[in-house]
Write a structure and sequence with these properties.
- This protein has an eight-stranded mixed β-sheet with strand order 1-2-6-3-7-16-8-15. A four-stranded antiparallel β-sheet has the order 4-5-18-17, with no helix packed on it. Strands 11-13-9-14 form a four-stranded antiparallel β-sheet, covered by helices on one side.
- It is an alpha+beta fold.
- The chain contains eleven helices and 18 strands.
- The chain is elongated and about 85 Å long.
- Helix content is 33%, strand content 23%.
- The chain has helices spanning 2-5, 8-19, 21-31, 42-55, 115-130, 154-159, 210-222, 263-287, 314-325, 341-345, 376-389; strands spanning 58-62, 68-72, 81-86, 100-102, 105-107, 139-144, 168-172, 179-181, 186-195, 199-200, 232-241, 247-248, 251-260, 295-304, 331-332, 350-353, 358-360, 368-370.
- The longest helix is centred in the last third of the chain and has 25 residues, at 263-287.
Length: 404
């Protein structure tokens, strides 16, 4: 990687990215004030598309689900590399997006996750176009939708309907600047609705109660024993229902999140969760001598596949060496769920990289970002995309062309 880094044109690009740091920060502060809840990223996506056009990227456009793309064409036959960041944030419409500045710290919901990453990849694109830098294969810059929460990776799922969309995928989505995620935590999310006859708490006493059935289920779920390795987790995150304190509810619901680094463990946990929930309903119905029954409906709200790559995979080694080359300390971050889940699960080389600077309170309204030599992250991203693509005969980390 040092050989690539020391090429004269790359040294110029590094200098450009350092000088561009103020512009990158300005774009971050502009973008973060555009609301972008999952599923409602249109305004931010249009702004990003305009910026890609102004940079001069080729084939700028938006697909049917709202992903935005722009390309720098390759010089010849080489792998297609996509570098992405997600447009959406966890914050609902109406959230106050006023930026607060104290010293060199900026506070605003979504300023780090993942708006900073959008600004970074735009800076990389700007440097490549300004200095006429091209990889051997096409490099696609992508701002994708619906990574957060119940967005369920809709954006990248749509992209990878075509398994040959690219030969390697990078998402910039990690709070640790030197962090590298090369495995994928799988998840399943369910809305579980319990339905019953309902009635008056006194005069209709003796009818089965959906909330009691849900309570039985939650109690059983809370007693699950799961593996520490591969890490496997469960959570009942939201419960709703009922009419009043003196009404037997007609319906109630719970949102359940199941996760594991292992596809097999996740499947087993999911089956166990469904079984104990159905058993809880049967127990509530058996408790009362009546024809009226509680029923349960499972609605899948999200599914993210698990997957893994070995630390010595080409794309992982390249990410490690590019991170080190710009002065960060590379570290394998704990497995988590990112846009890289989808390509990893399909056998497509993919990693999630750390964003620049210092930051914290992610996913809260107190989320903050502080530039700390923030140009280093775009430098790392430039090195990695060119290494994976191949550049001016440098092919040590060049990815194979999967569709050849």
């Amino acid at each position: 990687m040092e050989q690539l880094k020391n090429m004269e044109i790359i040294r110029k690009a590094f200098a450009y990215l350092k000088e561009d740091d103020d512009c990158t920060l300005k774009e971050l502060l502009e973008l973060v004030q555009i609301p972008a809840p999952s599923g409602f990223e249109q305004d931010r996506a249009v702004c990003i598309m305009d910026k890609m056009e102004r940079i001069g990227l080729d084939n700028v456009g938006m697909d049917r689900v709202g992903n935005v793309f722009g390309t720098i064409k390759g010089t010849g036959k080489g792998p297609v590399v996509m570098i992405a960041a997600h447009t959406d944030t966890v914050f609902p419409q109406g959230t106050d997006l006023t930026i607060k500045k104290e010293g060199n710290r900026y506070t605003c919901p979504g300023i780090n996750d993942d708006t900073r990453a959008i600004a970074e990849i735009l800076s990389v694109a700007r440097a490549m176009k300004a200095l006429d830098i091209h990889g051997e294969g096409d490099i696609i810059f992508c701002a994708n939708v619906c990574e957060e929460g119940l967005g369920d990776l809709k954006g990248v799922k749509y992209i990878f309907r075509d398994p040959h969309a690219c030969d390697g995928f990078i998402t910039v989505d990690n709070v640790v600047p030197g962090g590298i995620i090369h495995t994928a935590t799988g998840s399943e999310r369910y809305l579980v609705t319990f339905l019953g006859p309902g009635g008056h708490s006194f005069s209709d006493f003796g009818l089965p109660n959906p909330v009691h059935a849900m309570g039985r289920a939650i109690s059983r779920i809370a007693d699950f024993q799961v593996k520490k390795l591969p890490k496997t987790t469960f959570n009942v995150g939201v419960v709703e229902g009922g009419t009043s304190v003196n009404s037997i509810p007609e319906r109630c619901s719970m949102l359940v999140d199941l996760r594991s680094d292992s596809a097999e463990e996740l499947s087993a946990l999911s089956a166990q969760f469904k079984q104990v929930t159905e058993d809880a309903v049967s127990q509530e119905n058996a408790r009362w001598d009546t024809k009226e029954k509680v029923t349960v409906i499972f609605e899948e709200k999200g599914r993210r596949p698990a997957g893994a790559q070995k630390p010595d995979e080409l794309i992982v080694r390249a990410a490690w060496d590019a991170t080190s080359a710009v002065g960060y300390t590379p570290v394998f971050h704990d497995a988590s769920s990112t846009d890289a889940n989808i390509p990893i699960s399909l056998g497509i080389p993919a990693v999630a990289l750390g964003r620049a600077g210092d930051g914290g309170d992610t996913h809260t309204v107190h989320e903050w970002f502080q530039p700390e030599e923030a140009w280093r992250a775009p430098q790392k991203e430039l090195l990695l995309v060119l290494a994976l693509s191949g550049f001016q005969g440098y092919r040590k980390y060049q990815l194979p062309i999967r569709h050849a």
